[in-house]
Write a structure and sequence with these properties.
This protein has about 475 residues and is α/β, with parallel strands linked by helices. The protein has 18 helices and 17 strands. It starts with 12 loop residues before the first helix and ends with a helix. The protein binds pyridoxal-5'-phosphate. Pyridoxal-5'-phosphate binds next to α6 and β10.
């Protein structure tokens, strides 16, 4: 069915812009971008009307109102705004889509201070000559991990690329079939191998790999042995893995470097984080691995960065690799990383680093906040929704510790007024800041583990507003 009669109800670009100004939304995007977005939305609307896909039989007034509401929602949520803060009500602490680790106050202050002016990024203040940016965090990393040497690149994928390209270019790298990982955002270990110039040799099977599988595959062309953390999956049942100690001894025996991709770099005590059994960076180093690599913005709780620690000879070769220039971190990253590491060195990380304090937030305080939030929502929503406090299972997330759930508390909102939970969460994304919540069986789930206490009122406001709009 085609209904073109409403085409004339589509407002002009100028009329829409004037409406946005009236609603106080005119400055949300720079004008040229707003014009472009509005034009795109109106064109899409016109196309859909011509195709008979929407707004049949609506009055001109309702067509116009519908379009204006749509523009408002789109312009607030458009990625063209650039980065905007959001409230993470998912309970996933290291959420890659939401920017992974929130930084400590000290890291944020350090970024601001360094960003504002000049710094000793590559200037040696002792000699008054050119220095190296690596050395700004090396001592701290070595102290915290027990490694001989350390370097920093843009992310862990870069660290893996650099270590393979440095230690095993044109050579074979032996890896267990059980560890050929793909993590989110299309980081596939085999693809990185290929780009690094080394050749992958798979040994063992998906569920079982023995030390002898590695030993039997070693040839004169072997460049390295590699072990990678199962960051985002687990295998259980009839399973055998080669321990890192065994792999390190094998490498040492044959004079072949051993690389360990830890994924998440844990510097804190895993038991305190409820992550007993997860390997720390220090344990990886002391197993005798040549180079261990990990992310700066997973459980470590710092900025996006890749850190490689290991023997002095391996790390200095990596530092001399021309690729280093392409992979090196910027000064703001180093400022934040250095500040984050200082919190660890002072023994204050558990309170200062938000990822750690979120993982360790006690259930009773989350429960108390959930009670308060539920009470306030219930009294405002009345019979439009059933509100209750629920026990939840949060996640460390971010390809950090896959099967590790953290018991959590939050609020469940079951709409009762013909509104779907999905439309409520979608409208919550138009709040400022946007609130990202989950849905489950047509209920909105707000997990407070990842919400700062200071954000509780904003979450309530976004929820109420979403119900008002429906
Ligand atoms: C997360 C992860 C990576 C990639 O790290 P980025 O810092 O995101 O580049 C590589 N390997 C493993 C095992 C991981 O968990």
């Amino acid at each position: 069915m085609t209904d073109k009669s409403n085409l004339s109800a589509i407002p002009s670009v100028d009329a829409v812009l004037a409406h946005l100004d009236e609603r106080g939304l005119g400055a949300i995007q720079p004008r040229p971008i707003a014009v472009r977005l509005v034009r795109e939305i109106l064109e899409a609307e016109r196309g859909a009307m011509i195709a008979g896909e929407c707004r049949h039989g609506e009055s001109d007034e309702s067509v116009r109102a519908g379009i204006l509401a749509e523009v408002e929602a789109e312009i607030v949520r458009s990625p063209a705004r650039g980065l905007v803060p959001v409230i993470n009500a998912t309970g996933i602490v290291v959420h890659t889509n939401l920017g992974r680790a929130p930084l400590s106050a000290e890291a944020v202050a350090s970024i601001a201070e360094i960003a504002r002016g000049y710094s000793n990024l590559e200037y040696d203040l002792i000699r008054g000559t050119r220095g190296k940016r690596d050395y700004l965090v090396r001592d701290a990393i070595c102290e915290l991990t027990g490694a001989e040497d350390a370097l920093v690149v843009n992310n862990n994928a870069a660290a893996v690329l650099l270590v393979l390209n440095t230690l095993a270019p044109g050579r074979e790298v032996i890896v267990s079939r059980g560890e050929l990982i793909e993590i989110g955002g299309s980081f596939r270990l085999p693809d990185v191998f290929e780009r690094s110039g080394s050749r992958m040799v798979e040994v063992g099977t998906t569920n079982r790999t023995h030390l002898s599988d590695f030993r039997d595959a070693i040839r004169s062309s072997t460049g390295a042995l590699l072990s990678a953390h199962w960051s985002n999956y687990s295998i259980s049942g009839f399973v055998e893995r080669v321990s890192l100690n065994e792999l390190a001894s094998l490498g040492e025996h044959f004079g072949i470097p051993v690389i360990h991709d830890l994924g998440s770099g844990i510097l804190a005590d895993p038991a305190k984080l409820g992550l007993s059994g997860e390997m720390t960076v220090r344990e990886s180093v002391s197993a005798g691995v040549t180079v261990s690599t990990f992310s700066g913005d997973k459980i470590l709780g710092g900025p996006q960065a890749g850190i490689a620690v290991g023997t002095e000879s391996a790390i200095s070769r990596m530092r001399a690799n021309p690729l280093m220039r392409a992979l090196r971190p910027g000064k703001l990253t180093l400022a934040a990383l250095s500040a984050t590491l200082r919190s660890y060195l002072r023994g204050e990380a558990e309170t200062a680093v938000p990822v750690l304090s979120a993982i360790m937030a006690p259930l009773d305080s989350l429960g108390r906040r959930s009670d308060e939030m539920a009470r306030s929502l219930a009294s405002s929503l009345g019979d439009r929704a059933r509100v209750s406090v629920v026990e939840l299972e949060g996640l460390v997330g971010g390809g950090a510790a896959p099967e590790r759930v953290i018991p959590s508390r939050g609020v469940q909102i079951e709409p009762r007024c013909g509104v779907s939970a999905g439309s409520v969460t979608s409208t919550m994304l138009t709040a400022s800041p946007a609130v990202v919540a989950r849905t489950h069986e047509d209920r909105v789930i707000v997990d407070l583990r990842t919400v700062y206490e200071s954000q509780d009122t904003a979450v309530v406001a976004a929820l109420l507003c979403a119900f008002e709009e429906e």
